[in-house]
């Protein structure tokens, strides 16, 4: 198993990890909104996408290709299904890692029906030969299938019915410009604000048959790291606690006690996040400290710390990445109830733990 796969596995196991596991996928299918009106949040993307789809329906044609970017758990898959529903078209779902050869893509494209929506998740991880085939398919609705090898190889043009490609990526910067430019609409998914997540929690609670108070929904939303998938996961765990140790109603007190059991604090930090901050503050005086040194201190893989824990800590303003290493911010000292060293405003002993 590669280091990246290990990091991904760690993310999937965390209660506040944005990666989806089997339970998440099953529940999301039941909770997924069916149209743009029902979709909560992402106001700008929804408005823009609504115009694109309405115009396509008025013309009686297929919608432009759509690229959705943003962190995991923000609703890219849900929007792809809504696009298909709004256009009255079937949807085919696959992912970049599943397409390792141009032939894999050709087989999928050649079986599409007119107007069908092809959702390609993690499009940035598609192989280069398949990517180059996709250029022509998106622009001309045609692919060249190569038959044979060597000097005798022949390219046979294959006409494709008009279709809509919806690509999803968590790393838009890794997409080559020729591919990115072939999308007619690009939407960036933002993290959700607490009031939006409260609406998500209340809606999901209604669909799951869970009684939740306004204060209980607010408590869960505030610990959900701006991500609906995490909000729904926390709601399910709080529901379990409420059913076993309380009267089944999700109140603020019940949510607080339940999430304390699952080690998710009031800002959404979990065990791994706090371990990173504790090591940075208590062992290295706030930094700067190198990533490798910090990873050893918390007993985790370097990639796990860098890709799983750090993005949220940086976004929350608790940790900063500098050329000399990781540095804790004053907010990190305050969050853990510690006093920063008087020798340095930013924390730490300069350069001592770099590398």
From TrEMBL:
E.C. numbers: 3.6.4.-
Catalytic activity field: ATP + H2O = ADP + phosphate + H(+)
Name of the gene: ruvB
Protein name: Holliday junction branch migration complex subunit RuvB
Cellular localisation: Cytoplasm
GO biological process entries: DNA recombination; DNA repair
Region annotation Small ATPAse domain (RuvB-S): where it falls in the sequence: 193-263
Biased composition (Gly residues): 345-355
NCBIfam families for this protein: PRK00080.1 (NF000868), ruvB (TIGR00635)
Record's GO cellular component terms: cytoplasm; Holliday junction resolvase complex
Gene source species: Streptomyces marincola
């Amino acid at each position: 198993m590669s280091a990246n796969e290990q990091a991904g596995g760690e993310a999937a196991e965390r209660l506040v990890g944005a990666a989806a596991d089997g339970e998440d996928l099953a529940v999301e299918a039941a909770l997924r909104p069916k149209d743009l009106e029902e979709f909560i949040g992402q106001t700008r993307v929804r408005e823009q996408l609504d115009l694109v789809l309405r115009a396509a329906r008025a013309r009686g044609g297929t919608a432009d290709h759509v690229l959705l970017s943003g962190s995991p758990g923000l609703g890219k898959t849900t929007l792809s299904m809504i696009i298909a529903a709004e256009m009255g078209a079937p949807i085919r779902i696959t992912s970049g890692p599943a397409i390792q050869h141009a032939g894999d893509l050709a087989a999928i494209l050649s079986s599409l029906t007119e107007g069908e929506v092809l959702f390609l998740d993690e499009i940035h991880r598609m192989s280069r030969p398949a990517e180059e085939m996709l250029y022509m398919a998106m622009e001309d609705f045609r692919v060249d299938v190569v038959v044979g090898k060597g000097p005798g190889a022949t390219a046979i043009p294959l006409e494709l019915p008009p279709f809509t490609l919806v690509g999803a990526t968590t790393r838009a910067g890794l997409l080559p410009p020729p591919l990115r430019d072939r999308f007619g609409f690009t939407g960036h998914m933002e993290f959700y604000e607490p009031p939006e997540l409260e609406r998500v929690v209340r809606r999901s609670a209604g669909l799951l048959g869970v009684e939740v108070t306004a204060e209980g929904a607010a408590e869960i939303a505030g610990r959900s790291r701006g991500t609906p998938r995490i909000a729904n996961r926390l709601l399910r765990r709080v529901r379990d606690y409420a059913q076993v140790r309380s009267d089944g109603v999700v109140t603020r007190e019940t949510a607080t006690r339940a999430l304390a059991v699952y080690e998710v604090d009031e800002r959404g930090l979990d065990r791994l996040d706090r371990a990173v901050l504790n090591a940075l503050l208590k062992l290295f005086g706030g930094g700067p400290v190198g990533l490798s040194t910090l990873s050893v201190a918390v007993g985790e893989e370097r990639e796990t710390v860098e890709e799983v824990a750090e993005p949220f800590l940086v976004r929350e303003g608790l940790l900063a990445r500098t050329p000399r290493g990781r540095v804790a911010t004053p907010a990190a000292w305050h969050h853990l109830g510690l006093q920063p060293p008087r020798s340095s405003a930013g924390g730490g002993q300069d350069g001592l733990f770099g590398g």
